[in-house]
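We emphasize that the prediction below concerns an isolated chain of 103 residues; any contacts that depend on oligomerization or on bound cofactors are therefore not represented. The input was used exactly as deposited, without trimming of termini.
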Amino acid sequence: MSLERWWRDLKSLKPREPTTVEIRQLFDVVDRELNDAQRGVSNDNRFNFCYNAAHTLCVIALHAEGYETSRHAPGHHATVKLRSEVIAWLRRSHADLLPADLK
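Result of the prediction step, given as a token string:
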């Protein structure tokens, strides 16, 4: 399902004008989460850091495409459900960030 359809038909997204500063700050969050995951004391702790990084990548993809989750949809749930669109966006725009098995 395309982001356009999520916005038009499901009202799960709303238009948003992204800024370069905001996108950079979000990538900084991803970097911090992944660095923290490497130093995590437990597997649960590492998983949480990685999950937060993945969620933030979803938010980055939405913002970069001009969207954010709407009030009509639970934000976290709607963001996570867009993962296939996020992976497609990363493949198009930031393939260097993906592990080899997702390229």
